Amino acid sequence: MPLAICATPIGNLEDVTLRVLSELAQADLVLCEDTRQTRKLLARHGIEARTLSYHEHNEAARVAELLPRLEAGERIALVSDAGMPAINDPGARLVRAALEAGLPVTVLPGPSAVETALVSSGLAGERYQFLGYLPRSEKAREALWRELSRWPYPSVAFESPKRLSATLASLAGFDPGRELAVCRELSKRFEEVARGSARELAGRFEQAPKGEITLVIGPAAAESDEKEEAAAAAVAELIGAGLPRRHAVGLVAKLTGVARNRLYGSSL
User: Fold this and answer.
1) Low-confidence ranges of the chain (pLDDT < 70)
2) Tens digits of per-residue pLDDT, 35-81?
3) Across the chain, where does the E strand assignment appear?
4) pLDDT of residue 151
5) Model-level pTM greater than 0.85?
6) Pick the CATH number of 3-108 from 3.30.565.10, 1.10.730.10, 3.40.190.10, 3.40.1010.10
7) Hey, where are the domains in the chain?
8) SS3 of 68, please?
9) 113-217 — its CATH code?
């Protein structure tokens, strides 16, 4: 029997697929990121199953333990607390090990916070990129904002509610007009999708909200590259003429609207 990777609801327990329910009911063992969370889903749909914890702290040991059981023919299902296992959740190591051992692996698709947020944001297009969890340090965040300033498609990321305020303030300082959507508690009772510019949403979320957050960052403005390059060239020219870097950056930022920290970073 194959190892089955099962996507589970991101909030509303009714969003589980019929295939996943069938697989969980037939599995000899259900691997859970948090057994308490998975038991809520199983109980809601009247499924009795044997569960075993499988999370980031025991993943390596579990893989060594589970491969012989898969080879012996046990039917094992892997779930995370929400969404698809192995996407910012444990599971990739087990999938890789099973495939390398020549064992069959099947993936049962289902709810996705990434795609739900992207469509809800109104920023979906032909392409997007998934960033996982955003960096914690300001230096790393600014490096990411510089990278995204040339990315002409939307990006989706997860963020801790405790760090959301700092992240929005950081992006607002770098690119205040960047379109965003803060998606909170998707598919749950208090679902909220807040849309606006980085500056607007930084003001709205000055206090940490409650619940799980998915952030959608809109594409860079088409003219941003040329505008920023021209502004950076102007800063370099002023510095070359003897004006202190701080004054040159401030002057060009005021005249062009390009964020000060972006110009400062590019002038170093």
Assistant:
1) 1, 222-226
2) 999 999 999 999 999 999 999 999 999 999 999 999 999 999 999 99
3) 3-6, 29-32, 51-53, 76-78, 105-108, 129-133, 155-159, 179-184, 192-197, 213-217
4) 92
5) no
6) 3.40.1010.10
7) 3-108, 113-217, 224-267
8) helix
9) 3.30.950.10
Q: What is the pLDDT of residue 243?
A: 87
86-94, long-range: CB within 8 Å, 24+ apart, which pairs? Answer: 86/5, 87/114, 87/130, 88/132, 88/133, 88/158, 89/33, 90/33, 90/54, 90/55, 90/56, 90/59, 91/5, 91/54, 93/59, 93/60, 93/63, 94/3, 94/31, 94/54, 94/59, 94/62, 94/63, 94/66
- Secondary structure percentages of the chain, helix, strand, coil, to 5: 45, 20, 35
Q: Beta partners for 19? A: none
C-alpha 118/C-alpha 217 separation (Å) is 9
Residue 61: predicted pLDDT: 95
Residue with tokens 């606006």: 196
Q: What is the pLDDT at residue 222? A: 65
Q: Which pairing describes strands 155-159 and 213-217: parallel, antiparallel, or unpaired?
A: antiparallel
The predicted structure's pLDDT at residue 225:
61
pLDDT at 223: 54
